[in-house]
Amino acid sequence: MVGSEIPILIRFSSYVAINLDHHWPTQPVMTRLAVIDIGTNSIHMVLADVQPDGTYKILDRFKDMTRLGNGTFTTLRLSDEAMARGLDVLRNLVTLARNKGYERIIAVATSAVREAKNGGDFIDLVAEQTGLKIRVISGPEEARLIFLGIKNSVPMSDQPVLAVDVGGGSVELMVGNRDQLLHAKSLKLGAIRLADEFLKRTPPSDGMLHSLEESVSSQLKAALETFKTKRYDSLIATSGMAGNLAEVIHLKKTNRPLPQLNLATVSIKDVKEIEQELRTSTIKERLALPGLDPKRVDTLFPATIVLRRLMELSGRDEIVLCDKAIREGVIYDFTVRHRDRLKAEAEIPDLRRRNVIALAKRCHAPDVHSLQVASLALRLFDQTKRLHGLGSLERDWLEYAAILHDIGYLINERQHHKHAYYLITHSDIGGLSSDELHIIANVARYHRRAVPHSKHDGFDVLAPRFQRVVRILSSLLRIADGLDRTHFSVVRSLDVKIGPSVTITATVSGDAELEAWAARGRADLFERVFRRRVQLNLTPQEDTA
Fold first, then answer.
1. Fewer CB under 10 Å: which end of the chain, C or N?
2. CA 109, CA 323: separation in Å to the nearest integer?
3. What gap in Å lies between CA 364 and CA 408, rounded to an integer?
4. Element (H, E) at 304
5. What is the mean pLDDT of the chain?
6. Residue 326 burial (CB < 10 Å; 0-12/13-18/19+)?
7. 154: which residues sit within 8 A by CB, 6+ positions away?
8. What average pLDDT does the segment 155-180 reach?
9. What is the pLDDT of residue 22?
10. What is the dihedral of CA 297, 303, 308, 310, to 10 degrees?
11. Closest C-alpha among 327, 328, 332, 331 to residue 38
12. 3-class DSSP state for residue 63?
């Protein structure tokens, strides 16, 4: 064995400084979230970057008018053709999201899937074909999410507003203010449902219209009567149906497209005029109407009736349009439910490093010392790569072991290195395999006192190639830990020269005699592993003032 005496030489030089702001990391990054809304009429996807503070930016939107609910409300089944269309669209959207780096995907399905007897079969088929897990949400939950989207898009006061979303299968009625959702009802008045049930031909007969209006009126009246609130500050409408109606009205009045949907307004007079035009027109005449979405040619009319009757029953002669709804509501709901996790993920994007640091925090490991030792150990690793030949994976293991090397103090200061081994091997650190946990635990265990030996059970069970890795990494960790013996982070940078001996020059910002003494005592394993003497040189940091 090479002798462990290390001569201490003082030499002035300057090297790249180690970052001394050693606290658990706080560098902000964004969480990428894809939200898919599987509606009765359309399937939408938004791709959003979510900040830890809950703000978000939608980077892209995709929509397909799949008409998943065609015929569903009369047969209570999703047709084979509709399921095939839906599966094809979802397969494309999931592939697109993942190709763009959006691995976190939330998918929700509403009334068509909710009410179809074979809705579960469709969900299973999508999961099998795409890996996407769909959450079927109830009517009240749909209303809650929609209102979350609305109240974060339309200015509100403490006075209640009435909000409505006219979908393909259901209508969500909501009462709330800027603080909360007060009441909500989900009604079976969706435009596709009404068209399937009442409008058997176009233009409809008087009898069809009478039955339709009676059904809409009775359900809206019953819902409004259950709300304790009777007076509303405004009536807000969201959904593609309301948006398309606003576009048709604006084009008819100005001959120009609607410049912005959000906060645009339409009067009851304008709604009635368009309703009358749709009521008497054929399919061909409707398709010629400027701004009317061809895929809503049969559904815009019943949606218009719902909106007009709601205006009449609520006493509002104007609708305020909102361009946010369930998709944005899902994003807001996600940020509220996962705020702490989002913050953690933003600060520490790497899953494994995040979980390692979480364990260090739970065990009350000293952050400044743990991160300083990790930084020093990685410097040694990088500058001795010619000797050990290890790669990025082993480098990660060294960092994790360095961060966790002192967690054994949680149990007892005496033999804390052994307690660290126990805590690491008995912790569920997500992202690390059992082999990796045992390697990291051994490296942490050998940061002090005994060196790796076959008589140690935890070391002996490792495969020979992993035993070699443990010897190398723990030899580096022992020196790094010695170089922060006082926990004062006095070592500012390291420079390693490899020759017949290994020269480590440490630039220091203060008295580092204790660090030099500790590093000298911890270099024995390094010298044994690499068969080279170690020289440690301390260099005072130059005064830049």
1. C
2. 19
3. 10
4. helix 300-314
5. 91
6. buried
7. 161, 236, 262, 263, 320, 322
8. 95
9. 62
10. 180
11. 327
12. strand
Whether the CA torsion 88, 49, 107, 166 is positive or negative: it is: negative
Q: What pLDDT sits at residue 29? A: 56
- The model's pLDDT over 393-410, given as tens digits with 9 standing for 90+, comes to 999 999 999 999 999 999
Alpha-carbon distance of 147 to 84, in angstroms, equals 31
Exposure string for 433-472, b = 16+ CB within 10 A, e = fewer: eeebbbbbbbbbbbbbeeebeeebebbeebeeebbebbbb
For residue 24, the model assigns a pLDDT of 58
Q: Which two tokens stand for residue 137?
A: 């949400």
H or E element at residue 381: helix 367-383
Are 450 and 444 within 8 A, CB to CB?
no
pLDDT at residue 13 is higher than 60: no
Spatial CB neighbours of 135, under 8 Å, sequence gap ≥ 6:
106, 107, 108, 109
> Quick check: 443 and 470 in contact, CB under 8 A?
yes
pLDDT value of position 55:
78
- Check if the beta carbon of residue 322 is closer than 8 Å to that of residue 236: yes
Helix (H) or strand (E) holding 92: helix 80-99
> How would you list the strands of the sheet with 265-267, edge to edge?
181-187, 171-176, 161-166, 235-238, 318-321, 265-267
A 10 A CB-CB count for 155 gives 9
Q: Which of 28, 34, 30 is nearest to 104 (CA)?
A: 34
The number of angstroms, rounded, from the C-alpha of 186 to the middle of its chain's C-alpha atoms is: 29
DSSP state, 410?
A: G
Q: Is 195 exposed, middle or buried (0-12, 13-18, 19+ CB in 10 A)?
A: buried
Distance CA 275, CA 60 (A): 33
Alpha helices, DSSP H, located in 135-257: 139-151, 191-198, 206-226, 240-254
Amino acid of residue 51: Q
Report the candidate in 306, 307, 304 with the shortest Cα–Cα distance to residue 289. 304
CA distance 437 to 396: 12
The answer to whether 400 and 390 are in contact (CB under 8 A) is no
**DSSP classification of residue 452:** P
Mean pLDDT of 161-178: 96
**With b meaning 16 or more CB within 10 Å and e meaning fewer, what string describes 82-120?**
bbebbbebbeebbeebeeeebeebbbbbbbbbbbbebbe
- What is the distance between the terminal CA atoms of the chain, rounded to a whole angstrom? 45
CA distance 468 to 443: 11
Neighbours of 342 (CB within 10 A): 21
List the structure tokens of 109: 């399905």
